[in-house]
Design goal:
The structure holds two protein chains of two kinds.
Chain A (H helix, E strand, L loop, with lengths): L1 H10 L7 E3 L10 E9 L6 E6 L1 E2 L7 E2 L3 E7 L4 E8 L2 E3 L10 E8 L4 E4 L2 E2 L5 E17 L5 E16 L8 E14 L7 E8 L6 E2 L10 E11 L12 E13 L2 H15 L16 E3 L6 E20 L3 E6 L9 E4 L8
Parallel strand pairs in A: 2-20
Antiparallel strand pairs in A: 2-3, 3-5, 3-8, 6-7, 6-9, 7-8, 9-10, 9-11, 10-19, 12-13, 13-17, 14-15, 14-16, 14-18, 15-22, 18-20, 20-21
Chain B lengths: L33 E3 H12 L2 E3 L2 H4 L3 E3 L7 H12 L1 E7 L2 E6 H7 L4 E2 L3 E3 L10 E10 L10 E4 L4 E4 L5 E7 L1 E8 L6 E7 L3 E7 L16 H6 L5 E5 H4 L4 E2 L2 E2 L1 H5 L5 E2 L9 E2 L7 E5 L2 E2 L4 E2 L4 E2 L6 E7 L13 E7 L8 E6 L3 E10 L4 E10 L2 H4 L5 H4 L2 E16 L2 E16 L3 E17 L4 E18 L8 E19 L4 E21 L9 E2 L3 E15 L4 E15 L2 E6 L10 E7 L4 E19 L2 E12 L1 E4 L10 E4 L7 E14 L4 E18 L15 E17 L4 E16 L14 E2 L6 E10 L4 E10 L3 E2 L2 E7 L2 E6 L5 E2 L3 E11 L9 E9 L9 E6 L11 E6 L6 E9 L1
Parallel strand pairs in B: 2-5, 6-13, 7-13, 8-14, 20-25
Antiparallel strand pairs in B: 1-3, 4-5, 8-11, 9-10, 9-12, 12-13, 15-24, 16-17, 18-19, 20-21, 22-23, 24-25, 26-27, 26-59, 27-28, 28-29, 29-30, 30-31, 31-32, 32-33, 33-34, 34-35, 34-36, 36-37, 37-40, 38-39, 40-41, 41-44, 42-43, 44-45, 45-46, 46-47, 47-48, 47-49, 49-50, 50-55, 51-54, 52-53, 55-56, 56-59, ...
The chains are: A mainly beta, B mainly beta.
């Protein structure tokens, strides 16, 4: 027995530190422009972000391009210009996509180069049949002051949706969502004043895209996980004597074309690469935009024309979790704290 | 054995049949002139292609009459024994050690006398005056033929020697005779025979038993490498296997092969090995002539071959004889059955990861030998202690069983049956489970017509099955994917030794491939997965070959062969035909054609010339050259850098052409320092056509149109391998340096089918510099220390060159394929072994082996990848970095107890 223990000590360290930061010498001579365009069937959701990619070992991160002419053209010959707002983001709040129409994005930069997407048609909508949640305890990695990683158990809620297409096509959707925690505490006094607080966060670390692995479920997606978040108030606010009242969920669901869905799946694969031994070799993200004036110029990104829907839910946290749909959260702000008078979206 | 510090071992190519050409009666001795002992020995060594080892200090002052070296081999050394007062002890077929006579006699047995053996039909007595005996002399223990032994009818002064197959013909008058049998290193024998008429006779001799504790035989010894016809060959027998490095508690046959020049592995993990720049699926790994589709347990941590069950291992990297085909790069021929012995024996080992047991059971007066072996792991407990949640929730287990039954009803016939089963179960985290295993079975019948003609017929089946269960934690997504291969074969070989200079091999092979590329099914009742199946594939490879080995002279010989293969891809199958002169994309699908069962869809004829030649410059050196062409009709399509369990086997069809490999190789071989050192230089050049490269972002699993995700490429592999080996003394081992390149190029005119715009790019297996040093040191009779050092250039990788933001996510743009390299790889492994007892009479013999892998704890990068830093509450799940993954980052000790009884 003594001998066994001795070898245990010897064997365990080999799996510690299975990976470490690697800083290879990169010899990059490429340059590329990055275009991220989205257009939905809702006004105010058309935006194009133009920037430059930087060398991987550069300390810069974002290099926005602010001087460019950005236009969206439809298949009837009409063109709509987008205007620079800030940090390379171009918008036109009056514009929205219409069914049966196709749209093309063009970006002309100050050096005269013109970039153009392939024509995109507004994607069809996939029905969100149901939404539901349950309590779950998960192991979440954390890090101490010395940089060491360790796992902590975290109680929380995970949320799922069921989708259907009404045809044999597998629903292809992308979810953007926020969760708002509503909590409160009391101050000294009679009657004690109640302080109502709320904070909004994005629980997803990666893009949330429905999976079509092997196209394995025809016409439906069941139990697609859209989030997991902690129900421990100390995750959000470390002050003592806080009480959670509820959680609010705001969902933006984008219905994707096959091309856009493939792009986002590849993107997710890149983001979620874990370096497992048998992971496939890395691959580039292939978008739908090209430089029409110089084919040697590299352009990265995607122009997506998606139908979208917005959903509002409030989590009822009883013995079981249930989600109550609302039409809106009136007066909603992402963060706030008020005394005695809770905001309209509180209840 | 302190006398033999200066021992040099050299081995043999040789035709000892030259002895048979000597006149046994020419025994005149000229005592007036004499030679120094050393010169006499050298003369005999040169004349008979053998090597003697002796204490030069004690013997070189003695003189030997000149006439002695004129005598036939047996008589010459008999005289030397008398002159020197020393006795010859045989190490192998051509190496002898002189030891003091008293030592030899102490362990000698008295001459074996046998009862009268009747030859021919007694009813024929009196019909003939003379009769010819077709005889054979074998090792009584192993059954191996004894080459160059002398059979002497002393009264009639008629003597013959056995040929290369241990055969002899002796014509004697009808009646009783006494035959004296002599063979060096063996007890002399006396056989009494009664000859009635023509007939067959099998005689046995037994080896002398003298302990030689300071002679270590590693792989094949020196002169074999220099003098044998085959180039680029590594042969390891059961005895040498014991001397191979120990890792993870036991000798690993396949990992040991990667310590040879020109052979590399991806690292500590990953199935298979790469020979001269080829991918792992280009190696034909044969176990008892049946291919092993997955040669690794636990995805490469340990090989599926139980080392105690191995009789010999032969690796051929070039000049592959025409008997072999199917795979483009190499042949690894593993013969099972353990060490050659007809005694009951048991062997085993108890380690921290697995234990093993092997039994050898002689039955029915040793006419039937049953060998059984098995291993089983118990590594789950290790994983449960891991700090990583994925690993902690993982489980890994494996087992293998093998059995071999050999029946030898008479000297002319041998029938053997072989079976093998391996199972692996690996659950990664709580989500994915892999179960896979090999199942093989076959039978072989060997028949010897006479000393010149023999034939072998074998038939067998090898299967490989993989089951992947995914999303185990999500009942609605739970799925299982089955994949598998069935390989059926019949092989027939006919060997004819037309003369001592000329021998021919003729044979035919028929192989049927049945491939299930993947079938998806729901993993539970609740699962919403829709079943999906990629079409089964069926192919047939028929081949015939002829090979002639001709010795033009003692110095120059050639083996020339021709192999013809006919490949058929058969229905039922729906083929996809794409528009000509267009890139092969789903959009360009022209037609789907349905074929009925066994209808020929695609066929390919392959003509494969093989030639290899040797020119012996002198007794110490030779030059060899070879050319070979091989077609490979079954390929493993992979987009990972190491063979992964989910890689897909694919048969050649109307869209995917067979891989064709042409290789030329040239080598110079030389022995140094009285043949204590063997050295060689080999250069090679390979040209590959139709190498399958994957497209960016391709998904290979359950892909019904896999041809749209792969691109045929051409490849060139070339290199130079330097090798030096020391096989004798307390310190043995080898060192090698290899410089090599393995490059690929796509040639399509369509951008969709180009990689790096059709410029050359390094293959995944391009590691230009490779240095290996392996040393075994016998500290004493009981203690043995070994060390292995490996250095490789880093593996080619594709790394990020640019970064950019898409929304809030930092993304990356990758370099051209394999533009960069991982850091260089180097590792030192050591082990020390203590034998408990060397006493011959002690039945139970145990040994302890402590091995430490990666002694100085080098973090060798296995792969590099781009990843978020571990998502934590602290970093808000949003920090990204490049990481390198390493498998064994710290010294890894294991302790194993091995035993035999």
């Amino acid at each position: 027995m003594t001998k066994s223990k001795y070898f245990l000590l010897l064997i365990f360290p080999i799996f510690w530190g299975c990976k470490e930061i690697y800083e290879p010498e990169i010899n990059n001579t490429n340059t590329a422009i990055v275009i991220q365009g989205i257009m939905t069937n809702n006004p105010g959701q058309v935006s194009v972000r133009v920037s430059r990619a930087v060398s991987f070992d550069s300390t810069d991160n974002r290099q926005p391009i602010e001087k460019a002419i950005v236009k969206i053209h439809d298949d009837r010959g009409a063109e709509f210009e987008l205007f620079h707002t800030s940090s390379g983001v171009f918008k036109n709040d009056n514009l929205y996509a219409q069914p049966e129409r196709t749209y093309t994005l063009t970006v002309t930069t100050a050096d005269g180069l013109k970039y153009e997407s392939t024509p995109q048609q507004l994607s069809k909508s996939f029905k969100q049949d149901s939404i539901y949640g349950n309590y779950l305890t998960k192991e979440i990695m954390s890090q101490n002051d010395y940089g060491d990683y360790f796992y902590v158990s975290q109680d929380g809620i995970e949320t799922f949706v069921d989708l259907s297409s009404g045809t044999s096509e597998v629903p292809k959707c992308r979810y953007e969502l926020t969760v708002t925690v509503l909590y409160y505490y009391t101050l000294p006094g009679l009657p004690p004043p109640i302080v109502y607080c709320w904070k909004t966060f994005n629980p997803n670390t990666n893009l949330n895209v429905t999976k079509t692995k092997f196209d394995k479920s025809i016409g439906v997606v069941k139990k697609h996980n859209i989030n997991f978040f902690s129900t421990n108030i100390f995750t959000y606010d470390e002050r003592p004597n806080l009480n959670i009242a509820a959680f609010l969920l705001i969902i933006n669901k984008y219905n994707l074309s096959a091309e856009a869905h493939k792009f986002y799946e590849d993107l997710n694969n890149q983001l979620t690469a874990s370096g497992k031994i048998f992971d496939p070799s890395p691959s580039q993200l292939i978008g739908n935009i090209k430089c029409t004036t110089n084919s040697d110029k590299m352009v990265l990104g995607l122009f997506e024309v998606s139908s979208s829907e917005k959903y509002y839910y409030r989590y009822e946290m009883k013995r079981k979790v249930s989600l109550i749909q609302r039409d809106d959260f009136p007066g909603f702000t992402e963060v706030g704290e008020v005394i005695n008078n809770p905001p309209a979206f509180w209840y | 054995m302190k006398y033999f510090y200066s021992i040099i071992i050299v081995l043999v190519f040789l035709s000892q049949s030259s002895v048979s050409g000597q006149d046994n009666n020419s025994t005149k001795t000229d005592t007036l002139s004499s030679l120094s002992f050393e010169n006499a020995i050298i003369t005999l060594e040169t004349k008979f292609n053998v090597k003697f080892f002796y204490d030069t200090e004690r013997l070189n002052n003695r003189r030997v009459p000149k006439s002695v070296v004129q005598l036939p081999f047996e008589l010459a050394i008999e005289r030397i024994q008398k002159i020197s007062g020393y006795s010859f002890v045989k190490i192998n077929s051509a190496s002898f050690i002189l030891i003091p006579l008293e030592s030899a006699s102490s362990s000698s047995q008295k001459t074996n006398y046998q009862e009268y053996i009747s030859i021919g039909n007694p009813l024929d007595y009196g019909r003939f005056s003379n009769a010819t005996i077709d005889g054979e002399l074998i090792d009584g223990k192993t059954g191996e033929p004894l080459v160059g032994a002398v059979i002497n009818e002393e009264k009639l002064k008629i003597a013959v020697t056995t040929d290369q197959d241990g055969k002899f013909k002796l014509t004697l008058p009808v009646g009783e005779h006494e035959l004296v049998l002599k063979y060096f290193g063996y007890e002399s024998g006396l056989s009494k025979i009664k000859v009635f008429s023509q007939g067959k006779l099998t005689l046995e001799l037994y080896e002398k038993s003298i302990n030689l504790d300071e002679v270590v035989v590693l792989a094949e010894m020196a002169q074999n490498g220099v003098m044998r016809n085959q180039m680029s060959m590594v042969k390891i027998d059961a005895k040498a296997i014991k001397e191979l490095p120990v890792s993870m508690g036991e000798t690993d046959i396949i990992k040991s092969v990667t310590l040879m020049p020109g052979v590399q592995s991806a690292g500590e993990f990953g199935t298979g090995f790469n020979v001269r720049g080829g991918s792992a699926d280009q190696n034909l790994v044969l176990m008892e002539d049946l291919p092993v589709f997955n040669p690794s347990h636990v995805f490469g941590l340990i090989s599926v071959v139980n080392p105690d069950e191995v009789s010999s291992v032969t690796l051929l990297k070039a000049g592959i004889p025409s008997q072999y085909g199917e795979r483009a790069s190499s042949v690894l021929d593993i013969k099972m059955g353990g060490a050659q012995s007809e005694k009951f024996s048991a062997k085993g080992g108890i380690g921290l990861i697995n234990s093993r047991l092997s039994l050898k059971l002689p039955l029915f007066k040793k006419k039937v030998i049953l060998t059984l072996g098995g291993r089983s792991s118990y590594s789950d407990w290790l994983l449960k202690k891991m700090p990583d949640a994925d690993l902690r929730n993982s489980s890994a287990g494996f087992s293998d069983l093998n059995a071999m039954l050999t029946i030898s009803p008479n000297v002319s016939n041998r029938i053997s049956f072989f079976g093998y089963l391996s199972n692996d179960n690996f659950q990664l985290g709580s989500t994915t489970n892999y179960k896979y295993g090999n199942l093989m079975g076959g039978g072989r019948w060997s028949h010897v017509f006479n000393s010149n003609i023999s034939t072998t017929l074998m038939a067998g089946r090898s299967t490989y099955n993989l089951l992947v269960e995914e999303d185990l934690d999500k009942p609605v997504d739970k799925s299982k994917i089955d994949m598998g291969i069935i390989y059926d074969c019949v092989r027939w070989n006919f060997a004819w030794s037309m003369s001592q200079r000329n021998s021919i091999d003729i044979g035919v092979n028929a192989i049927q491939y049945s491939n299930n590329p993947g079938e998806l099914n729901p993993g539970s009742i609740e699962s919403l997965i829709i079943s999906k199946k990629v079409q089964n594939e069926k192919g047939m490879e028929l081949s015939g070959y002829i090979s002639d080995n001709y010795n033009f002279s003692d110095k120059f010989s050639v083996e020339a062969g021709l192999r013809f293969t006919k490949y058929l891809f058969l229905g039922p199958y729906s083929t996809r035909e794409y528009s000509p002169n267009m890139p092969r994309l789903a959009d360009n699908l022209n037609e789907v054609r349905i074929y009925k069962k066994d209808e020929i869809i695609f066929s390919h004829n392959g003509i494969e010339p093989r030639i290899s030649a040797i020119y012996k410059l002198n007794a110490e050196s030779s030059i060899k050259a070879s050319y070979s062409k091989i077609h490979q009709y079954m390929n493993l399509i992979s987009n990972t850098s190491v063979m992964a369990p989910t890689d897909v086997w694919k048969l050649s069809d109307n869209n995917i052409s067979p891989l064709i490999c042409n290789q030329i190789a040239l080598g110079y071989y030389r022995n140094y320092t009285k043949q204590a050192l063997e050295a060689s230089v080999e250069v090679y050049f390979k040209q590959l056509n139709n190498v399958m490269e994957y497209k960016q972002g391709s998904k290979l699993l359950l892909n019904e149109t896999i041809e749209t995700d792969v691109i045929p490429a051409i490849g060139y592999n070339y290199g130079i391998e330097l090798y030096v080996k020391k096989s004798t003394g307390r310190l043995t081992g080898w060192a090698s340096y290899t410089f090599s390149k393995a490059i690929r190029q796509t040639t399509s005119t369509f951008s969709e089918e180009q990689i790096t715009e059709n410029k050359f790019f390094p293959s995944d297996f391009d590691k230009p510099h490779n240095f290996i040093a392996l040393a075994n040191y016998h500290i004493s009779r009981r203690w043995r220390f070994s060390a292995t050092f490996v250095y490789n250039s880093g593996r080619p990788v594709t790394l990020p060159e640019m970064k950019y933001y898409f929304g809030n996510n930092q993304l990356i743009y990758y370099s051209d394929r394999n533009k960069y390299r991982l850091p260089d790889y180097h590792r030192l492994d050591v082990s020390i072994t203590l034998d408990e007892s060397l006493k011959i009479k002690k039945k139970w013999k145990g040994s302890w082996t402590l091995s430490i892998v990666n002694l100085y704890g080098r973090d060798n990068a296995f792969s590099a990848f781009y990843q978020k830093q571990p998502a934590t509450l602290v970093n808000n799940f949003k920090t990204y970095s490049m990481y390198k993954l390493y498998i064994i980052g710290q010294p890894f000790p294991t302790l194993t107890y091995n035993f035999t009884f």
